[in-house]
Structures are given as C-alpha cells and as structure tokens.
Amino acid sequence: MKKILSQLQNPFKSVKPAGGAPTTHESVAAEGAAQSLLFEIDEQLSGQIIGWLVANAEKRLSFVIDDEVSVAIELNQRRPDVAVALGVDELCGFATILPRHLFDDRLHEVAVVETDQVSGHFSCLGVRQVRLRASAGAIAYIEYVERHSISGWANVPAGSELVCRVGEGMLEEPLTSPRRDVDNHLLLPTRTAIGFSFPVPATFQWQDDDVVEIVARHNGSELTLGENSLVNAPLAKPSGQIDGLSKDTVFGWATATSQGNFAVRLDGETVLPLNTSIDRPDVAEVFRTGDEAVGFELPLLDGFLDTETVRVELLFVSDSEPIVCDEKILSATISGDVPTPTHQLPARRRRAAVVCWDLAHNPAGRALVLYQILELLFDEVTLIGPMFPRFGTSVWAPIAENENLNIVTGVVDGFSDLEAFANEAASQSFDFVWLCKPRYPTLFIGLTIWERCQPTIMLDIDDYEFAFFKERQINGEASALLSSLRSDQVHLADLAGTTLAHSVIGAFDHVTVSNPSLQSIFGGTIVAHSRDESQFDAALFDRQALRASSGLPIEAKVVVFVGTVRRHKGVLEIARAIGKSSRSDLRLLVAGTFEDDRIREEIEEAACGRAILLSDVSFSELPTVLAMGDLVCLPQDASAETSYYQLPSKVADALAFGMSVLLNDLAPFENLKDIPGVFFRQDDESLEAALDRVLESAIDKERVRETFLSRFSHSSNAMRVSAMTDTGRRRASSFDHATAFPQIMGRTSKHLISKIHRKHVDASQRDLVILWKQVDSGLFGRRVDMVAEYLVRDGHFDRVIIIDHPLSLAGFRDLEKRAASMPLSNASIVLSRFVGKYFGHFDKASLVQRSFVYSNRSEMLFGRRLPSFTELKSSFQAFFDEVGLSAGASLLVCPYVECLDELLAAAKFDAVFADLIDDEREFATTEERRRLVEASYGKAISSSSAVFTNNERMRETFSSFCDAEKIHVVPNGVERHSLSADEVIRVRPSVPGGPVIGYVGNLRDRVDASLISYLARTLPHATIVLVGPTGGNASIEQLAEIENVVLTGALTYEDSTRIAAGFDIAIMPHRINELTGSMNPLKFVLYRELGLPIVSTAVSNLLGGTAEGVILTSDDPKEFTRGVSMMLERLKTGEVKVEPLPSGFYWSARVAEIAEIMGEFTDLKKERQSGLEEEQEQFNTGTFLQA
Q1: Which of 391, 717, 969, 1143 falls 20 to 30 Å from 175 in CA-CA distance?
Q2: Which run of H or E residues covers position 498?
Q3: Cα torsion through 580, 581, 583, 585, rounded to 10
Q4: Helices assigned H by DSSP within 409-463
Q5: How far apart are CA 563 and CA 570, in angstroms?
C-alpha cells in the first residue's frame, strides 16, 4: 500500500503543510489500517467481484489491487441481508469489474480507499487478502428465505436441472423466470440467468442451522452453485402497494409476515395501523404467495381530506427502523367505490410493445424478431396488430404456435374497426413502442398509444414498401387521402395509406432498418434480422439422426431453403441447378409455405428427384431443419424490385448454424462481404458452378458462429438499440408529433399545448453545451474550465454542460493501463475524474459534466452496453433528455474533435461557436492525421457563428478557413487568488535554506529537459520542483535522478496552485518552436497573480512579458541559468518588485468579452417569445400545421 498511497496522498517527495509536521505515507497507512472495515466479497463471477461494503456514501470509493490497479466502487446493489444484520442502508452491495488478468487463482492484496469529493483527500479504510479465482462461471445467489419459499437467481449450465438441498431434505421443481436485471448488471458468461423460487411444503422440516444449497444436476453429477446458512440468509423484504383513494378510504395490498406489522403514514406524521384485510387473488396469482397476500382498506381521519392532496406511505414496522414499502401522492377529490382488482402486476415493471400492421401473414415475422429483442431489455413485451380479412383472420402460424407471446389482435375490416382496435390497444400503458413497417395501420395504432401514455417511440423499416405496389401514382393532398381512408373508399393497407405513412418517417428521431440498402434511403441504425442464439445453435442437435429420420443421406451436401416460397426468391432456380449438377450427393431441402401448388410441382420436377419438400414447418421446428443443412442459397431475382431492399432472415439462420451462404451481389448484402462463410456469385457464373465452388470451399464454422453472435443474434441487436430504448426518463421528443399527427390522424396532437408550455419554460433558461477536445475537463483549471465557471458565475448563462471528447473502449483501457503503470502521468487522476463524470457524480445545478465511451464491437463497460461511434448521436440525445437541455441552447466546440457531426445532429442549437486553443496540427505525426485534424477545424469553423482564440498568431493561422473578422482574440486569463499561509504548500528544499524554483504545467512536449538538467546541476543549492504530468516523456522523467529535482506528477488545479504559491522563483523553460508559438500559456499569468518573480524563455504570446519582475531569455541553457541566477541575486537584495496584473487580465473580464460576442448571436428571446405566441394562437384557432 505504501506505493499507491504515496501517489494518492503525497505524490511529491516531502511536503510540509504550513504550520505542521511533514506528512508521510507510512503515517497515513497506519492511520487507515486502524479504521474498522465492514466489507465482504461474497462471490466472483466472470471478471467481477460481488459483495458488500459499509462506507460513507458521500465519499468516492475505490479498490486498489496489489498497489497497482485502481477501480471505482459503485454501491448500487440492494443487500437486505446486510441491512437486517447491521442496521444499514440496503444499497451497500457492489458488482465491480476487475481486469481479467487478476483472476489467476492467487492471493491478491485488495485495499479499500475512500476519497473526500471536496478536499480530494485519500485514505485507506483497510486491506484484505483475496484469492481471485481463475474460473467463476456457474453461480447461484439466494436472495430471500421465506416460510413458504426460497428464492434467488442462478447462472445455470446448459441442460442442467436446478434443485435446492436444505439440510437433509431436497426441494425440486422450482418456479423459474428470466432474470434480465442480473443479465444487465452482471456480465455473465452466457445470458442464462434465471430466477428461481422453490416452494416449501407445509410438512417440510428444517432446523435453524441448516445449510441451503442450490445445486445443478447434469448427466448424473452435481455441481453446487451457491449456499447459505438459514441463520444468515436474508429474510424476504416486506412488500406492498398503495392502489388508490376512494372517498375517505385508502386501499392497497401487503404481504403478511411474522416479523412485524404494516401501517400507513399520512403526510409524514400521523401513523395508522392496518388491522383489517380483504382477499387479493390478483396479488397472490402474480407473486404466488398463497394466502399471505392481503388487501387493506383504511378509512382516513377527519381533516385529511380538507387539502387537495395527501401523501400516503405504506410502512413495515418491526424492531428496527420502519421500511417504506410504497409512497403515493393521492388526490383527495376522488370518489367512487373500491375497484375490483385488475390482475395487473402490482409492482412497477418496464413495459414495451411492438406494433405491426397485420399479424395474419408474413409481415409478422419481422415483428417477432423485434419482440424477442425487446424481451432482453424489458420486463413485459406485447405484440399488437390487427388482422385484415384480405390476408387472413387467424394469427400467422409461426406466431400462433408460441404460447408464451403476449398478443393483442383482432379482425379489422375498415376504418371504424381500426379506430376501435387502436383504442383497445392504447388502454394499456407502455414505456417504449417499436413500430414495425411504415404502413398506415402501424402508424395509426402507434400514435393512438403515444397520445395516451407518451412512451419513447421508434420506427423500424425492413422493406421498401412501395415495391409491393405495381401502380405508384397517387393523386390528391394529404387531406384527400385521409378522407378516402376514413370513408373506406380504399383499403387501409393500400397505396394511399402507405404514402401517408412514408410522409412522416422524417418525424422520428429513432429509426432502425434491416440492411444498408434501406439505410441509404431512410438513414437510421441497422438492426439486421436476428435469431435467438440460445435456440439456433448446432450444438443442440444430432445432425446424423435428423438426416436419417428425414430420408437424407448422411454424406449428402444439403442446400436448405426455409420460409415463404415465392418465385422472386429464386427457389426454382436452385432446384434447376441441383437437377443439372453432376454431383450425386447434392440435395435440396425446402421447408415453408408455398405461394401456390404450381410452384411446388415445378420445384420437384426441376430438381430431378433430389428435392425433399416438407409441409409447413413451425417456427419452433425451424432450428431442427437448419441443423441438417450445409448451405443456404439465396439467388434473389435481380429483376424484382423487392430484392434490392430485403435482407432475408435466412442469412442469420445460416450463420447461426455455421453454414455457408451463397448470394447474388445485391445492395442489401453490401455489409456482408467481410463475413466468413458468405460467398457471392460471380458475374456470368452459373448457379450450379457457384454451388460447386462454395461446397468445395472449407470454412471455419466457429468463426461463422462468432460472427452470428456478434452481429445477427438477438443479444447483439439488443445492445445496439439499448440506448434508443432507454426510458429512464420519458422522451416525448423521440418523434415530432406536431408533424405526424395531422398527416396520420387528421388532427393536432392533444399534447401540443403541453409542448408549447414546455417551450415557454425552456425559453427562460439559457444552456450552453461545451464540447471539449480532451477527457480532462474539471481538473487542471484549463481555459475550458474557467470559461464554463465564469459564464455561469457572472450570469451569462444559467447552466453549462461540458461534454468531454468520447473515448473508445480501447482508449479507456489504455487510460487504465497508463494510470497503473505511469505514476508521473496525469492518467490516474484523469481516469478517476473521467469515471466520475461517466456516472454524473460531479453534476451541479449550474454545471453538468459528462464523459462517454463507445465501442464498435457491441461491448459493455460498468454494466452498460456501449454505443458504437455512429450511435453517439442517440447517446447524446438520451443525455440531453436526461438533463433537460433547454430549447434555446448554444454550443461551444473546442476542436480538434471527431464527433461534432453526431453532437450537432443530437440537438437543435440556437447558435454554434468555436474556441481554437492550440493548433493541434502541430501534434500530428503523419500527414493523414494532419488532414483529419484540419478537416475537423474546417467543420467547426464553418458551423460557427463566431470563433474565439487566445492569441493573434492563431487568428492569422486560421484566417485561411474563414474571414479573419469572424475570429476574435480573447487571451487567457487568471483567477484572483488570496491564499492564506496555511493554504500555501512549500516543498522542503533539498538544501536547508535553499531557494525553491518551480514550474507548473504539462511536461510532455513543450519543456526543454536539457535546459532544466543544466539549471539543476549548475545551481545544486536550489530545489527545482516540476509540477505536472510527464506524459511518458523519458527525458523529463530521468530528471528525477538529479538530487535537487522533484517531480510531483499530475496534480489538480487547486493543489498545483497551492504548491506554486510556495515557489521563490517561477520558471517557464519552454522550447521556442512552432508548437509553443501557437500557445498562450496560462501558467504565466498564474505566476504573476501569485506575485512570483518569473524567468521564462521568450516564447510568443506572453501576456505582460515585459512587466517588472519578469526576465526573458533565449532557450539556451546557459543564458536561461544566468537569468535565474540574476533573479536570485535580486531576491537577496530585495530588488524584485512584481507588477500587479491589470484588471482586464482576470477571467471575469475575459469571459465577459466572450459572452458579449456570443450575445450578438444568441439574444433571440424576444423572437422566440413572439413565435410561441403565434403558435399558441394557431393552436387555439385550429390552424396549427394543417395538412
């Protein structure tokens, strides 16, 4: 621990706080070890440690492993067992990801370190020796032990049976259900977490000291997944719900328990016990609690109904502190009888819906894919769609056979039927709705639901719907088309309705498409047709037995086609090729619905007896058919327009089973060309020749399967859309309802008035978003930090939101490595701050800071699925919705940045500005990199109304990008500092009584190491203190070998300032070159504000470089050293006078200048208010957005 604490607590050699003795890391370690630590690691699972920790919630917590790796601890898991045993907050559990190399079956030193978020002080709470197991896959966790059941969750090996052993007894046949909360928060090796509840018979005998074991049985062997003693097992947390208020009575339900009683607390004061009960069969059905779920009715006392609302809390009262099970603010004006229980889930669950325009035929296939993806993200999913008699009056067979689907459907034959069906669907409340296919019925039902409950809404497009219509011409305005639909003059699924549906696609912020061809038309995120990886897996089937039972030779090469057999899909062409082939082992296996009997006969005839045609195969039987195949061939008819926009689900089918795929080279398949096992038919190549070529080509089935898992599985798609489905805050802005409603519904949305109201509220707040070019905002007092602080402090903006430049996951891992291996870099404190910003730990009312991580490989970080770079737009949108970005926000971008397009697309900014701080082109090491940086500057400058920079040279340099008058020079400034003697930190001189000469700033590439070395060796009685990150610069780090040189490493702005205030002389030994010529050094004005004599090389852009108390030299080591010696002599004789800074040098003045220029482009309040009043008048008169 000494090494890590020396870095955290005292990173310089020896520091003596004013008025006290030196603080050493040994004393800190001793002090930390003395503290009591309530901390346990219960389990290890797939790169994580799971346990609990009781600590001060107001301080940041970290694990430090082996004095090298530091990882943040998030106490975000509920641990009722710990809460009951120790009387602490339930939210004390953690599931912390550690680097995988630490799991090596060896003992590791794990220290818990806490950080005061105000002072930044670190202390060690305690150290444990922990053996981190190399494999930790199968696991079970017992959450609750009740009189009637034992429940929890388990990560069960495939094909295993789960049982529970209690002492000498055995419980079997548990009630199970998916546990997606576990899947989403713990990185399980496979998505196989299930919840279990073992019913305990009334006759079952157990003892208090019995051990409960959760056991997996597999092929006659047993594996213990988890165990706990009944004495230590957590008791079931009491639960209940306040359903409502009727007349003068509160009613609800609670679960009975022998450990305490329930009561109701009114307005936080009056507590009334619950002594009566009624049957609640709906609760018993959902929770399977038998007769232990009771309903209650509690008459209120006189006086509580005199106010408009009453706050009602349901309490569980026992020997410990009361537990609040539910809380409601109820209206005291409601009247009526107590309603009959509705059998809906008593607890709040996240609910999603998929809406499809018809469930009687194959459009429902795509809807099923979306449904199954959402099952991985939500607690409940509902499939909603009508059935038009034209296509059938029974649910499409592959869906009808699945008894586990939650379906809302009905026959619809006209507009009035559609309206009634939509209202029925909207009687349920949803958090998220995914609209499948831009057809009129889909949009009408979706908008009806949205108007009732305002869910996040997203549109999915997997076909070019117009390709299904031979006649494309349609006449008439939107109002005329609507009239024809409402009067049933045209079918709701025909061209008129489809045209209206397509007219509002642009109103949706979130669009998904199935392939690149559709993406080129509609944009959006690609969500390919995917399959459930747990069912579509060759390892689950006996291929030889299946072939034998189907009449297929074991050694045959089988081409498989599954699905609806239509002529444009090329099945007949495959049959002809197989019939002509000289290969006697070639077979065609077709399983699906035939367009007509004639095509069935033609296939049999063309294949010359080599085809096996199966009758309709259910969707559940589909994997069985695929397991028999070697190749999926899709020779889509290039003359059919639909072929240019469809990516058949057969591609996912084939890849799931490690099969080869043969395709014609069509636009929808463009992004499949890098996939192993996917082959394309060559120009002028016959199909029989192509089949022979593919079948003779060896493929790596495991690689094909891996590609399926990463790109075509339900899990990978769920990761892609998870940010867009985030409903932590309702996003009514997920589509423009003001545009969509008139086109589809023929009227304005009933919620438009509330939208106008929100605009009024937003207009009164002025937000500024700053996109910073690096990941270190909030640490070092850089220009971006000062601009943000003073824009808010001096009232120029109400709030500033700083977004650090997003890091790739690889970049984040590199930052972790540097934090562990480069103690003199800034990586450690940048990492700590970055993670804090990632979770919003530093947010304040007037200043919000956020960091982002992305990955293009569908990866996770801290239990969160990462967006790809192209999905950052959605991540930014979700973040802006989370923080409530004002309608009139502005943007200040500090290039070089790579994600400006994504940020500009995420919000509508009133004005955009740029601040050019350094010329990043000078850091470019290749010509390609320089071009990228230059393009970024061009984009930022061209997007901006005004551009700022900190010196005249930068203005001249970038004047080639725009008119020079557009660029405003606002130099860097300084804060006013008045440090007391106790706040100043003076580094102990290496020679008693000797001077301390110091530098504060980045040491990576601008400081001359040879100059500093010469200075230190020439003046051995002086102590040279270098405060700042070295960035791995070996020549700088080697200076630590000189006895009178102190390297502190990176420190925060506050600590750096306190140390600088203890210098006798401040130096700025910069190289004089192109790089430093474009800088406007902040440290120079900081030195002057602190009243320090300064010796600096004569670099450009020094503010007040000729002031008294400043000596400028060349970058020659001898001349610079003479300048320092001269300043030391002046100090001895008292001749040094430091000239005070002019008032215009302070940040308040600098930022006021920036704000004044911004105001020329952002003072739009009056115009916005006028526009809102006009919009309100249009709404009142019914003329708003007429179709």
Answers
A1: 717
A2: helix 495-502
A3: -70
A4: 415-425, 440-453
A5: 12
747 is a domain residue: no
Any domain includes 40: yes
1017: part of which helix (H) or strand (E)?
A: helix 1009-1018
CATH number at residue 225: 2.60.40
CB atoms within 10 A of CB 375: 20
Give the contacts of 981 (CB within 8 A, at least 6 positions apart).
18, 19
Question: Which residues are registered as beta bridge partners of 558?
Answer: 587
What pLDDT was estimated at residue 208?
A: 62
Do residue 154 and residue 219 come from a single domain?
yes
Quick check: 278 and 293 in contact, CB under 8 A?
no
Distance CA 552, CA 563 (A): 20
Residue with token string 């998870």: 722
Residue ending a domain, choose from 492, 526, 560: 526
3-class secondary structure, 980: coil
Mean per-residue pLDDT pooled into runs of 10, the chain (1187 residues): 32 28 30 55 70 80 84 78 73 78 80 77 81 65 70 75 85 77 52 76 71 79 70 55 71 65 73 64 48 68 59 70 71 40 40 95 92 89 95 88 89 93 88 94 93 86 85 71 88 89 85 86 86 90 90 90 79 90 90 82 90 79 90 79 78 90 84 86 87 88 86 82 59 61 73 35 73 92 92 88 95 84 82 84 86 88 82 92 87 94 93 92 85 92 94 90 92 86 86 92 86 95 92 88 90 88 93 68 85 89 70 92 93 84 86 92 50 43 36
Give the three-class secondary structure for 1120.
helix
Integer Rg of the chain from CA: 35
* Residues 559 and 618 both lie in one domain: yes
Q: Which stretch of DSSP H or E encloses residue 821?
A: helix 809-821
Is residue 913 a part of any domain in this protein?
yes
Count of structural domains within the chain? 7
CA distance 589 to 1056: 74
pLDDT tens digit sequence for 239-273? 777 877 665 677 787 775 545 567 787 776 666 77
Q: 945, 969, 993: which is the final residue of a domain?
A: 969
Residue 986 dihedral angles phi and psi, to the nearest 5° = -110, 120
DSSP state for residue 965 in the 8-state scheme: G
Name the amino acid, one letter, at 184. Answer: N
Mark out the alpha helices in 841-926 (DSSP H runs).
872-883, 900-906
Rounded to the nearest 10 degrees, how much is the dihedral formed by the CA atoms of 921, 922, 928, 932?
Answer: -10
Do residues 997 and 963 both lie within one domain?
A: no
Helix ranges, 34-176 (H): 80-86
Residues 556 and 704 occupy one common structural domain: yes
Q: Tell me the angle at which helices 440-453 and 495-502 cross, rounded to the nearest 10 degrees.
A: 50
Residues 280 and 317: beta-carbon distance below 8 Å? no
Q: Note whether 45 and 125 are same-domain residues.
A: yes
In a domain, 481, yes or no: yes
Q: Which domain holds residue 379?
A: 374-526
The answer on 420 and 392 residing in a single domain is yes
Quickly count helices (H) and strands (E) in the chain.
37, 56
Beta strand segments in 910-1006, E: 911-916, 946-949, 967-969, 985-987, 996-1000
Q: Give the ranges where 113-225 is alpha helix by DSSP (H).
A: 180-185
Amino acid letter for position 1019: L
Q: Are residues 956 and 890 in the same domain?
A: yes
Q: Which residues pair with 1027 in a beta bridge?
A: 1000, 1049
Provide the pairing of β-strand 586-591 with 611-614.
parallel
Pair 382, 522 in one domain: yes
* CA gap 605, 722 in Å, rounded: 48
What's the pLDDT at 183? 60
8 Å CB contact between 983 and 10: no
Q: Provide the CATH number for the domain around residue 853.
A: 3.40.50
Alpha-carbon gap, residue 1053 to 1029, rounded angstroms? 12
Q: Which of 1016, 1114, 1031 is nearest to 1070 (CA)?
A: 1114
